[in-house]
Amino acid sequence: xxxKLKFRLALVLCCVMMMSIFAGCGGEKSDVxxxxxxxxxxxxxxGFLGALTGSVANYGIPGKKGMEMAIEEINANGxxxxxxxxxxxxxxxxxxxxxxxxxxxxITRDKVVAMVGDxxxxxxxxxxxIAQENEVVILSAGATSPGVVEIGDYxxxxxxxxxxxxxxxxxxxxxxKGWTDFAVITCMDLGYSTGLTPVFEEAIxxxxxxxxxxxxxxxxxxxxxxQVTKLKNAGADVLVFTGYYTEAALIxxxxxxxxxxxxxxxxxxxxxxxLAALGQSAVEEKVIFYCGFSSDQPSDETAAxxxxxxxxxxxxxxxxxxxxxxxxxxxxKVMEDANSVDPKVFKNELAKLTDYxxxxxxxxxxxxxxxxxxxxxxxxxxxxxxAILEKIPVNVE
Length: 397
Prior knowledge:
Layout: H1 3-25, H2 35-39, E1 44-49, H3 57-76, E2 85-89, H4 96-110, E3 114-117, H5 121-134, E4 137-140, E5 155-157, H6 162-175, E6 181-187, H7 191-206, E7 210-217, H8 225-234, E8 238-241, H9 245-257, E9 264-266, H10 274-279, E10 287-291, H11 300-313, H12 319-338, H13 343-350, E11 356-358, E12 361-365, E13 371-372, E14 376-382, E15 385-392
Parallel strand pairs: 1-2, 1-3, 3-4, 4-5, 6-7, 6-8, 8-9, 9-10
Antiparallel strand pairs: 10-14, 11-12, 12-13, 14-15
Helix pairs in contact: 3-12, 4-5, 6-7, 12-13
C-alpha cells in the first residue's frame, strides 16, 4: 500500500472517530432525553395555579412569591439537570372555569412539565383531572380535603391533611382545654368546608364530645346575626367553623357585637391576613386554626427560608409561600433522582418521596400517594399578627 493511500485511510479513520466522540458527548447539551424539554426550547416550564385576585387571593399571592423565589434560587445554582427553570403565572381568580382554561393552556401552549398549586381542593380537582388526562404532574400546595390524589397517578399534594390534623386538634380541645360541647358551622357552597365538617364531627364523637349546634352559611354572606344568636343560646364551649377567613372574621365581629365570649377553631382555610384585618379585636386570641407551618421555632431549613424571604419581599412568609416553595424544590429533587423531566418518568420518584426536609415540615408520600406531615401547628392572632400557640403531634396510623 502506498504511503499516500495509508495517509488517506488514516485521515478517514480519524474523522470517523471524532464524529463518534462528538455524537456520544452531545456537545454542551444535557444528556436528558425528553421531548417536552425540546418543545419548550431547552427550558423547564412549571405552571403556577393560584388566585391573584378574588376571594382566595390570600392563598395565591404568597404562593406565587414562594414559587418565584424557589425558581430564582434554583436557576442561580445551575437549574435542574443543567436546564434553567421558567415559571408561568396566570390568575385563576378562584374560579373553576378559569383554572380549567389555564391548565389546558399551560399544557398545550406553554408545554409545562408540571403544575404547582392550587391551594383549594375544588380548584385542584378541576386542574387535576386535566393534568391526569394529559399525563402532566400536578403538585397541590394546599388542597387538604378528600378526592384529590384519587384522581390519578399524576396528582399529588404536599400539605398537612385534614384527616390527620382535625382529629389531633379535637383531641387537644377536649383533653387539654376541657371543651366538650361543640357548635359547628359549615359553609355549604364551599367544598373545603363540606369536606372538613364531617372530619371534625367524627373526631368529636369518637372523643366523647357533644355537638350542641349545627348551622350553616354561604360564601359571600355578610350578616350573621341569626347564626350568632343561635350560637349564643346553644351553650357551646367552642365554635368549630370549617370555612374561610373572611366569613370567620365577620362571624367573630358579630360575636363581639352580641357581647359574649367564644373561641372559633378551624382549619388552614382561615390562614389569610384578611382574618386579622377584618376581625381586628374580635379575633385577637379568639381564633385558632391549624396548619403545617409556623415561623416560630423554625428548623434550620425554615430559618434559612425565613431570612431569604424577608430579605426579598420585606414581609413575613406564610404556609402557602412555604408550601409552594417546597413544591418546586420537591419537583427538582424527583426530576434529578429520575434523571428526567418527563412527567411519565419523574412521577414515579415523586410517588416514593421519603422524609423530604422542607421549610413547611418533613414530607413523605405514603403508599396511597398521600403526604404524611407532622407536627400540627396551632396558630392564633396576637397584636394583629399570626403567632404559634402550640405544636401538637399527629397520629398517622
